Amino acid sequence: MTLKASIKSMRLRTLPLSLSGVILGVTLAADKADVSPWTAALIFLTTVCLQILSNLSNELGDTLNGTDSADRQGPQYALGSGDMTVGDIKKLIGIFIVLCIVSGLAMISVSFRSIFKTESICLEVLGAAAIAGAMKYTLGKNPYGYRGLGDMSVFIFFGLVSVLGGYYVAELPSLIMLLPASAIGCFSVGVLNVNNIRDMKTDAVNRVTVAIKLGMKGARIYQTILVTLGWALILVFCAVYDFAPGHYIFIITLPLYIKHLQGVWTRSERALDPMLPMLVISTFFLSILAGAGFLIF
């Protein structure tokens, strides 16, 4: 097991998406209350560790289930290329489980001064659920990612949990915070959906996804709805939460989303792969700009 192979399987290009929700949640909280830089740093670290754990678990699960084959339309990772063994991946998974627990407890301790308060225990339960969710997507006897439930999981963990959890460490979120949380959830599901559209042929062998259920045209319409709904939610949030023209600075990312949708409607299989990082980076910058808009203006 080499460092290069390990990094390859960590799928670092997915990290900006996992950080998008917590960045938005933390910056919106910082607009209302003091957020310790240490708390913010530990939230980001925990999020990165959870995402890497999810990526490693997904690679192992897809390999064991025979989904990742030579016909895979996306990039080949370390197991598929033979650079790592199943045992190597299992060791890395164990390491990142420990890192998730340590960084998560450190974040809770710094934020709430104790890991035994009611607020702390709520986050600890949520963290345990996030670890289990990251691993059970493709691992286990009945992985939910193989039963068409991945979209729901991504919406919950990448959207609701990410934004509301990031906000919660400094301030108790109100119901209106469901709007930006749901917006990021929609964009995150969009990333998964593009991945599933690209892999429809190979996934159809032993996996059920929403894209397969909808078919190519239906999946593309679904993608358009996700992106459009995400934008509608974030725009409504800015209008009703604390209106100011400067809060809309994130609109400069709109052309990237339009170009993404054009690519989804005109590309297929391997040619569709660049549309994934485009949506990831677009959402990452939207989150940074949306949060910064509230802090600055």
Describe what you observe in this structure.
72% of the residues lie in helices and 0% in strands. It is mostly helical and 297 residues long. Helix 2 packs parallel to helix 7. The chain is globular. The N and C termini lie far apart (49 Å).
The arrangement of helices and strands along the chain is HHHHHHHHHHHH
Low-confidence stretches: none
First-residue to last-residue Cα separation: 49 Å
Shape: globular
Largest sheet: none
Helix content: over 70%
Structural class: mainly alpha
Output the number of helix runs. Answer: 12
Q: Nearest-angstrom radius of gyration?
A: 19 Å
What value does the average pLDDT take? Answer: 92
Strand content: under 5%
Number of strands: 0
Feature tags:
12 helices, about 70% helix, about 300 residues, mainly alpha
TL;DR of this structure?
The protein is an all-alpha fold and 297 residues long.
Secondary-structure topology with pairs:
Layout: H1 3-10, H2 15-30, H3 37-64, H4 78-81, H5 86-112, H6 118-136, H7 150-168, H8 178-198, H9 200-203, H10 210-241, H11 254-266, H12 275-296
